[in-house]
Amino acid sequence: MANSAGNPQSPKPRRRRLRYSLGGFLVTCGLAGIVLGWIGRKIELAQRSPILLLAPITEGTTLTPVAAPNDAEILTVAEPFLPPGFRTVSIYRRRVKEHADTQRSYPLVGNACQIHRIYQCFIVGECNGRPQMEVIYIDHNNLHVWR
Q: CA 87 to CA 14: how far, in whole Å?
């Protein structure tokens, strides 16, 4: 009887709304947290171990020496491994190995070769009145631009 008044239009279809469930929201938040945590960890590791960019290598030049690790750097690296109550008396260091990788292309740098220097560090001290020595190895890396 409603259409008998001469109104041939049918009723408008209802617009469907997107529906979200709590489970879908929690899964999305969990996945986003995992991805952002992974990215944050990669950034933290990249900031923790910087690579120096040194002068270009040309024909007949020698590699620029990088200073050996200083006492503060050695103690910072060794702190988690030292026993409680350890009192540092002296620190000795020596370069164990130095080698250069082959030339390759690095993003945002260009052609360069990576130089590795490995230092052996002896930390001599006392722990509870007894002499003790700890040994750690520190790896210094840097890039030399290749021209």
A: 78
